[in-house]
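Sample pair:
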Amino acid sequence: MSGISHSKLAMTLAASLAFTPLMGTFVVAQDVAETEEIAFNNAAAYRIDIAGRQRMLSQRMAKSICFVELGVDTEAHLASLDSDHTLFTNSLIELVEGGGTRELLPEADARTLAALEIVQDQWTKFNAEVETILQDGTVTSAADERLLEANLALLNAANEAVSLIEQEYTGATSMEMSDAVSVNLYGRQRMLSQKMAKEFCYIAAGHRVEEERAILMETVGLFDASLQAITNGMPAMGIIAPPNDEIAAQLGVVAEVWGPLKAIYDKIGAGADPTQEEIATISAGNLDLLSEMAKAVDLYVSR
């Protein structure tokens, strides 16, 4: 990872976190048994994780659509798009109605339900384009242009839902605010891995090239700063260091995968045009980064 000063790192993360964390532990009622408390906190972490995964799926679908337009690994990206649109739909139902593999309870918070309804509205619009693409097996430049704003509207709606769920559960359980922030931050790295690849692809496809270069460098900087924060901890920002050696080691793997990809992103962000070799590298390598980051998320949530 590139060197970032402590003050700059703190400023980057402060601007990106959904809300300013408050230090301390919220104590549950005295009559709640420790085992019940742990189970409830795990359920909270799972809900934040699933809601956070929706952000990633919004960006992975947009990325897949762009690479299909480019004609790069078309079958693989169409297959990913197909499975992702099913997972997004099912996960949204789980977040609202409960159930699923994690056996979530139905959502009861009015603000969170309202936010999830906005996610549903944005998803309905985005999914209409996705289903057409899956039916046709191709992506036109015009279709991808229409999705440039639609995917960000879906991402923003999903991010707002995550923030509300995070606040909801840190106030209702003994889950520390710092732990909830870390779950969110770990999960956000999955999304950023896909958002960077999408922005790279937009540049390669000729969509809003200079604007996307600037956005790409912001995303790269946020991923890099966040990786440093979760690797080393930043207590002042409510971000804890890896709670065990296994998670620390996995974040080391993430850093190793990240290095070569960051070099390509930095080059493109500085003004170079992507080569065919670089397009192929990002098409495959972004999934390696996502996979390794997802392992870190799973280790953190299930610890």
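Residues 77 and 228 are 30 Å apart (CA to CA).
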